[in-house]
Structures are given as structure tokens and as C-alpha cells.
Amino acid sequence: MNKQLFEDSLLFGSNAPFIEVLYEKYLHNPMSVTPAWRNYFDRIQDTQETITENQSRDAIVRPQLMSHVDQDYSSEVIRIDTNDRKQIAVLQLINMHRYLGVRQAQLDPLRCMERPDPPELDPFYYGLADHDMDTVFNTGSLVGPDYATLQEILRLLRQTYCGTVGVEYMYIADVEQKRWIQAQLEGKRSRPSYSPEYKRHILERLNAAEGLEKYLHTRYMGQKRFSGEGNESLIPLLDCLLQRAGQMGVQAIVMGMAHRARLNVLVNTLGKMPADLFREFEEDHIEELPSGDVKYHQGFSSAIMTPGGIVRLALAFNPSHLEIVNPVVEGSVRARQYRLNDKLGNLVLPVLLHGDAAFAGQGVVMETLNLSQTRGYGTGGTVHIIINNQIGFTTSDSSESRSTLYCTDVAKMIEAPIFHVNGDDPEAVTMVTEIALDFRMRFHRDVVIDMVCFRRLGHNEQDEPMVAQPAMYKIIREHPGTRKLYADRLEAEGVIQAGEADDMVQAYRNAMDTGINPNKSVCYKYKSPYSVNWAPFLKPTKWNQKVKTGLPIKELKYLALRLTDIPDKFKLHARVEKIIDDRRSMGEGTLPLDWGMAESLAYAALLQDGYPVRISGQDSERGTFFHRHAVLHNQSPEREDDRIHVPLYYISPKQADFAVINSLLSEEAVLGFEYGYATAQPNELIIWEAQFGDFSNGAQVVIDQFIASGEAKWGRLCGLVMMLPHGYEGQGPEHSSARLERYLQLCADYNIQVCIPSTPAQMFHLLRRQMIRPIRKPLIIMSPKSMLRHKQSVSSLNELASGVFQPVISEMEKLDTRKIRRVIVCSGKIYYELLAYRQEKKITDMAIIRIEQLYPFPHEDFQAEIERYAEADEVVWCQEEPGNQGAWHRIQHYLLRHTRPNQVLGYALRPSSASPADGYLARHKFKQNELIVAAFREKI
After folding, report:
1. Hey, what's the signal peptide range on this chain (predicted)?
2. Structural domain harbouring 114
3. Residue 646 lies in a domain
């Protein structure tokens, strides 16, 4: 019967893999196959229980037809008999193990995780019976023998997909990627084969992981360290990853992780000296940083020796906001790849370590995953490692921590393969690490390793987990530990002798007593030739130091010419053509410069000086307010390469690189990415632009935990620029305020700069100053909206040529200073409304001063300006924002410092409000007018 079946059936020989893929297509969408095949599969489905729609949708995501198959079977008569049905049932069974075998995998070291029992993994579900077990079937695309008995096929499938490794990958659309993963797993049946020497090395790494935790627990009882006990296999995992990456040519690895097991990684992976860690526990060292941070948030840099040479390691500093470090690491990696001209991501590798509850629960994970394959943010794929303790803080029931079966399900959105592995099988952990890294390096896509383990102690060492999780922790207390289990296994295999594992334990403890790190792969005092020199920015520099930011008129005209040189046959949109024509006139000096032109000239000048420029935001190429037009689009492209033109690419032959990116609709991940990029690239102007200033609300964690405090906590310098459109134009509460008060509240220790430029020339000099001055501090710009086209908010070429950024701008009209009785102080757009009112009412005894830099406050400049008005007995601060918002609460103390004892300090502002602005245009105009009138009222 078997011989006849092999010869006669369509389902054997070279056709079997084709039928298998065709059936996958049918399950996803019956209309995607020809009518004859659809009828065939329909009739087969009628003879057995069908896979439900939900199961099909959950398991199958658009498998593609194999490329070599092009036959048309629509005209053939397809015979169906019992043997055919059984053969296709076997193919179904194979495929369902690839889809759902993970649900029967033995992943939980505690054996308390409930394993679903999918009926699709049972041969009887497909009409196969006990008497079919010895029948020989074609194995389709299953790696191994072409023909095997059903019993043998089942054994191979269960070894591969239902052991201590469980894999999810069949949702991947790319057939090559799926087949590659199948070859890796099915070829070795998910069972690694390591030499005795390497097995001893794995044991040594497990011994180091457990040894450090027990040493710290004994020596520093009760102190917080967020122990890695229960997930010791992480250390051999990382060792394998780093050594293999180095062998594959990787030169640098940037890692990000939260606090769980961080101290263990610092010592046993990166090579931090135990003596240095002990001093941090004993707190007998003096912090060099203004405030510092706890030891389990600290970063570290080192180098390790690998078969491929020395690999530079960096563990990013991380606050307690868990996953927020993810985009920061990606940005840092992208900057390093840029320095090495590593366009594919073969030389610099990002590695992110996650907690299971955080990976499923924190939105920045999804945002960062979504960056992975985009033009401006891709890093060639990230290796994600999940330390799956099966418990989030105190939650162990998955129904309380997520709505999905696995904590990793969010990674399926980018079709990343997911390798689940039992942490008590360190050899399986090592094997999936090798496969995962190979996948990343081959396909340059993200990959996930979900190491299922447990947490022996509480959330921290002062927490008692038995209070909330008695059942789980009764099992944990009886667990001997991964090191002990593996040592016993190796002793049974004859790899080590009796008592040898105990000797290793004592040797590690002796090393800890001396404070020496026994990891011999660490290269101390190694200096990478590709490291960035931050020394010029570490020297003390005065904030009010003047630097030359202007350019000769001739050079400005040349840059303007390059910015407006449009290729022949490149058709611009009519509105854009008018803008470019006006910019030509601006460059010739016949029109005053607007904001868009001044900003473009600043970028062009920096590029010519050798400073790369990178701008990102949700509409940065064009500009949210239709003002930038850094990328021009051909309205009638004749060739594929004529679709766009970027004038800033063509400033000069030896110019630096320019990049402008329309980011995805994310604030938190994108701003975190740009921060990470800026911390690794001090000589590049990095700008993140919010579509409206209040959009930065979605990235507040990045602002609070990194941008404002990164230098104080970790000594991390950063020259990132944030452009936040700000101004009250009657657009309602959501798009008026960039929440200036929040940034001013964060100001201390000269940590950031907060500026509100009111002219195009000010923006030009401010951007130039950010790079030319030897200071690298974040710059927050309250950037304009309506001012972009305000007739009075313009500048001349001379102001760009001879000027500098002015932290304080004097009264611009010729007023008799002896007759000034009131000085109105303001920032931003409201200046022009105050000026218009004063001109309309012909007021001559009130001067208007603009403060363009609110922090660091320009005390000397403001003092010199206020002293010009010796007869003024009133100083009024005027702002658009309500009294509980804006700059008033911060600025009043500075103003008081510079007012005379006989001067009165007053204010003109909106009443305090829970909302930033009014929602009705008429109400806005009424209040705005009241505000302007109040600034000029007779008595304050």
C-alpha cells in the first residue's frame, strides 16, 4: 500500500512541500488558492474537525507560496482517497507543531505554569489512529528523512518543539526566514551537542552567577541589590552571545537592562571589580557627581577578548522606569554605527534585557519595536533577552499582568521570532542564543529570547514574597538551583569528577574575598580607537561666554544660493516654488529673512564647518507649519531618482552629513532614541522637533530621567536640542503651551538651557552656538508658530553676519530712557503684540525688554539693561500663560534680584487655570486683549 501511495499520489515526492505551503495559504484565506485546490481542501476539511477561525488567525499570518512552484492545477481532476487524506493530515500535524508545539514545551523550571493542551497536536484530531503509527508517510519540509513512520515523525516533532525549547516563528511572512529557523531547530532536534570543555565553561559561568549572589547575600544581608538568584543562566547566555558576536566580526555591543540581576551582569559579564562594588555597598567612597545614583542603575564600559578580537561593551545607565532605556540604547547604537560607517549593523550590536511583566506592560517597548525597520532609526536588528521570572513585582498570575498568553506577544507585530527556553537547561539556553544571534546577523531583524526562570527572593531583598505568593514560593524554596542541577548532570555524564563543582564554588568565593574578578576574558585598560573624545566639553566654561556665530555676507549669499539651486526639470509645487523664489531674494538681500530661511542657513553653515546635522520629528522634512521644506518633492517625476531633492545635501563637496527624518507617531521612543544618539555623538547637531510643544508630554519620562538629570546622576553629557512649538493663537488647550513651566522647574546645576528666540537671527545664532561653543548641554527651544510668518519677526543678512545670540534684547525703539516709568519684561510672541499696542496708543514712557534665555538666567546682561532706566519705578513681567504656568514662578526671583528697593515688581498674565488655554477663539482673543491692556495699565 505504501509503495503504491508513493507512486500514485500527488502528495508525495517533490510535490509534498508545495502542497504543504499551499495548504497554509488555504487555511489563512481559501480564496488565495485555485478553485480545484480549494474544493480539494474543502472536502478534506469536511472529513475531520476543522481548525476554528480564531485558531487559524492566531497561528497563521500570510505564508507565501514557494517561489519555484508555478504549475496551474486548476484544470486537473484531483483524486481524493483515504491515503491522501492521511498524508495531508500528517502535513497538518507537522505544521501545527511548528505553530503550537510551544504550548506543550517544558519551559517552566517550577512546573507550576499551566500548559495548554491544543488538540491540534494530537494525531487523532486529524483522523489518524493507533494503527497508522507504523505507516510510512512523506515528511514534507520537515528537516530529516524524506519518509518516516508516523511514530517517528511524532517523536522528532516533540523533541524539536515540545522539549525545553519552544519557538514561535510561523507568523513570519518571509519564507526564507521561516525555513532557516526550521533548519536550525529541526536539524538538531533542539538538542545541542557541546564538547566537555564547553560544558565545563557553562558550569563555571553558572557558578560565577550564583556565587556572586550568595556572597552579597551573606556579606550585605538585607541591602537592596535586586538579586539574580533563580535566573543564573543569564550569565552563560550573555557569555555565549558576546563571544559568538565577536567571532562574527562585531566590534561593539551596547546593552540596556533594568535592575534585576544588573549587579551580576556588571561583575560577571562586563568585568567590574568586585572590590569596587563592595565599596558601593559600604558607602565609604566619595561620589564625584553632584547627586549620583544607586548602584543598580549605574552604567559601565569595558572590553572583552573574543575569538574575533576585542569587543567593546557598554551597559547604559538606566533609571527605575524599566524599559525606557530601550530607545536610548538604540539611539546610542545608531550613532556608533554612523561613526563606523556600519550601514548594515554588522559592527555594532544592540542587546536589550527585559523583565517579563515590563516587556508586556510598558508601551515604550512597542514604540521601540516599531522603530526597528524604519529608515531613520533602524540598527540592523536587536537581540532581546527576557528574564522571565513569571512574576511582575508581586503578580504571578498572567491574567493580572497581561492579556496575552505569552509576555512576548507584542514582538509578533514586527514578525520577530521568539525563542522560549527553560532556564534550568543552560545548554538549551546557550543553543537558542546561538540561533538567535545568527538570525539577527543574517537577516538584520529583531529576535527575542524568552528565558523562563524564577525569582528566588522578593522584588528586593527587603520584600517577603511569601506574603503574596505562598504557593509559588513553597516550590521555589525546594528548588536546588540551576547550578546544582547542571553540576549533577555533568557529574552523571562524567564531564566533571565528584567534588569538582564544590571546588569551583570555593574558588569563586576566594576571588570575591580578594576583590578580584576571575573572568579572564575581560581586557582592562583597553582604549578603543573609535571612542569619542569628550575632554573639550568637560573643561569649565562660562555660560555667558561669547562665541562667533556670524558669517561674512559673501558666505551667507553663497549658502543661500546653494539652498535655492533646484535641478532642471524638477517641478515644485506652486506654494513651495513661491517660498524658494522668496528665499533667493532673501539671499540676495532684497527681502528680509524669515524663520525657515534663517534656520536653513544655520544648518548649511554647520554642515560646511564639518558638523553633521540630524533632525527628526513627525513632520520635520516639510515642517509642521509649512516653513522648513528641507525635502522638496517633484510634482512630475520623470525618473525614479528625481522624486525628491534635498538642498542641504549639496552645500559643498566636503560638507558633513545631513539627515532629516519624518518620524513615526511616537514621542517617548523617538525622543529617547535621539537622546541616546546625542550622548554618543557630541559633534553632531541632534534635534528632536515636536509637532506641537505639548506633544512632549508623551515623552516626559525621557525628559525627567535622562535629559534633565542624566549629567547629575551619571555624568552623561548631551547636546540634544528639543524644538517645542509654543504660543497662544487660539488653537485650544492642547496646542498652545509647550509647558514651559515644567522645563524651568527642572532647571538646576546649569543642567539644561531654556530659550525663547523671537527673531530668525536669534534662531540662527542659537543653533550655531549649540555646536561652536565648547558646551554640551540639552537645549530646549520654545519655537514659534505664528511668528514664522509675522511681518515684524524677520531679520536681515547683516544680523546673521555680525550678530550673536542675545540672551536679552534691549528696547528696539528710540525712547528717552529718562522718561521711562515702567519696564515691561517678556519672552516670545507676546512681544510683538505688546509692541503693536504701544505703537497704536502712542505710549512713550514704557520700555519693553525681551529675555530670550530663561535658563541659565543672563544676570549680567539683564542687570546692565535694567540699569539703563534709572527713573523707572515699576517692572512688570508679562506672559501669555496662566499665572500657575509659564515662567512667572521661576522668573520673579531673578527679577527681584535685579530690581532696586524702591521699584515695584508686578505682573500681567492670565488667571491661574487647570487648563493651559481657552478652547474658544473668541474667548481667547478677549483674554489676550485684556492681558495686553493690563501690561500697560496706569497702576500695577
Report:
1. none
2. 2-160
3. no
